[in-house]
């Protein structure tokens, strides 16, 4: 049996049994290493060495957390929450409640989409904005699995489709690795090729909203642990918006989330909206807020390095290529399923592209797929598994906000719903794109 398959299945089964995700990743890494022929000592060594690979990610999240907390101190999140509360129906009529639910879902969807391109703070906005809204969700009896689905859609669909912000990084990695694998493409073709797969995500979102989670769900009004509420002033709001613009500009210019977050923090402090003597406390608060996600990412990098060390990632991709033969329909499906397994094992769609492109690009051309179809296959195969993975920031972020009052389970209320509603449609629509483009 392939070590990647065994390790990923072990990690998923343990997670579904409510074992802590970090422990599930460590156990999965040990099982994968031993299955792949590594000794226990070598597995531990590789896992430990892999932890260092997440240093940049951990620092990025820490600074993004600090930036988010600094922005919260200016009062901008409170202004947004107050405006949202003001749009909610004041009476108990069902029409007013339905209208309020619609407004909330649309606004949260917009904020999550903007976090990937317009306001590049990624998941750092969720623990700031979502906890204050939980009492409103409870009053309206909104199923939090619906909100998790909306957030995860906004965290994944934009980078897959739009070449801006995180999407610019994803598209650049895709184009570069496809060129290195023998197929030069125009980056302008990527959004067109990925439009149909993203339509699958839209279908999944609509099913979650109008079918799966449309019924009321009861939650208790527990005290919510959140960042201390701040009053807002006109000057503070203006400078926070300037800081967001500066963060976006710096990130796009330097290609670094770290520099982007740092630029935003400097603008906030330089404006006087936040005092310099508060800097240390704010950064510490931000780091605490993102601590769980950081630990999961650390374990995920170690897990990924163990799987790479076994050599079974490439073996899995090669075995799929050998089994395909000349069957285009089977070939497209197999490549997508392998991409799902690899991404759930590696933990990042961005890191999956270099692994699968080296074999999938020549194989797609050999099977007679067009360049556009090949883009759709490789792009979709990489994106699969981001939503629905226990160790993905696209699921960890929503849980960080929705579980602020300990009533939202990471696996059963975020991971399983997003896996079902997004990975299944993404495979179907990605396969259709491969066959028609």
From TrEMBL:
Pfam families listed in its UniProt record: Na_H_antiport_2 (PF13726), Na_H_antiporter (PF03553)
Q: Origin, by domain of life? A: Bacteria
Q: Describe the location of the Putative Na+/H+ antiporter N-terminal domain by residue ranges.
A: 2-87
UniProt keywords, alphabetically: Cell membrane, Membrane, Transmembrane, Transmembrane helix
Na+/H+ antiporter NhaC-like C-terminal domain residues are: 150-431
Localization annotation: Cell membrane
Looking up InterPro entries in the UniProt record yields: AA_Transporter-Related (IPR052576), Na/H_Antiport_NhaC-like_C (IPR018461), Na_H_antiport_N (IPR032813)
Q: Which residues cross the membrane?
A: 58-77, 98-115, 121-140, 147-170, 190-211, 232-250, 256-274, 286-304, 329-347, 359-384, 419-436
Q: How does it sit in the membrane?
A: Multi-pass membrane protein
UniProt-recorded name of the protein: Na+/H+ antiporter family protein
Q: Which organism is it from?
A: Mesobacillus jeotgali
Q: Which lineage?
A: Bacteria, Bacillati, Bacillota, Bacilli, Bacillales
């Amino acid at each position: 049996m392939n070590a990647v398959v065994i390790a990923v299945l072990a990690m998923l089964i343990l997670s579904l049994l409510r074992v802590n995700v970090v422990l599930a990743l460590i156990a999965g890494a040990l099982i994968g290493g031993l299955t792949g022929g590594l000794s226990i000592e070598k597995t531990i060594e590789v896992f430990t060495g892999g932890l260092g690979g997440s240093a940049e990610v951990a620092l990025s999240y820490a600074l993004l957390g600090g930036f988010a907390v600094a922005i919260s101190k200016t009062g901008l999140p409170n202004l947004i929450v107050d405006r949202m509360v003001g749009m909610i129906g004041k009476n108990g009529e069902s029409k007013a409640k339905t209208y309020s639910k619609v407004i909330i879902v649309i606004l949260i969807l917009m904020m999550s989409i903007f976090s990937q391109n317009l306001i590049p703070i990624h998941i750092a906005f969720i623990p700031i904005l979502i906890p204050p809204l939980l009492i409103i969700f409870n009053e309206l009896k909104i199923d939090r699995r619906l909100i998790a689905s909306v957030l995860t859609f906004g965290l994944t669909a934009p980078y897959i489709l739009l070449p801006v912000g995180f999407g610019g990084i994803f598209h650049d990695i895709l184009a570069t690795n496809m060129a290195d694998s023998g197929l030069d493409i125009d980056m302008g073709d990527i959004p067109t090729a990925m439009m149909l797969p993203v339509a699958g995500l839209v279908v999944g979102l609509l099913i979650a909203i109008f079918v799966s989670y449309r019924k009321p769900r009861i939650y208790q009004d527990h005290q919510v642990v959140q960042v201390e509420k701040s009053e807002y002033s006109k000057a503070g709001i203006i400078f926070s918006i300037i800081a967001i613009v500066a963060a976006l500009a710096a990130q796009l210019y330097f290609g670094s989330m770290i520099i982007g977050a740092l630029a935003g923090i400097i603008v906030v402090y330089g404006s006087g909206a936040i005092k310099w003597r508060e800097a240390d406390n704010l950064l510490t608060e931000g780091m605490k807020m993102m601590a769980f996600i950081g630990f999961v990412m650390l374990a995920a990098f170690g897990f990924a390095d163990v799987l790479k060390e076994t050599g079974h990632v490439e073996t899995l991709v090669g075995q799929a290529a050998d089994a395909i033969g000349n069957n285009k329909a089977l070939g497209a499906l197999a490549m997508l399923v392998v991409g799902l397994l690899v991404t759930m094992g590696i933990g990042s769609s961005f890191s999956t592209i270099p692994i699968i492109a080296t074999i999938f690009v020549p194989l797609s051309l050999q099977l007679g797929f067009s360049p556009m179809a090949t883009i759709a296959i490789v792009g979709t195969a990489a994106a699969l598994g981001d939503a629905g993975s226990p160790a993905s920031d696209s699921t960890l972020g929503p849980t960080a906000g929705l579980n602020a009052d300990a009533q939202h389970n990471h696996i059963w209320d975020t991971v399983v719903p997003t896996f079902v509603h997004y990975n299944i449609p993404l495979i179907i629509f990605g396969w259709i794109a491969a066959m028609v483009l």
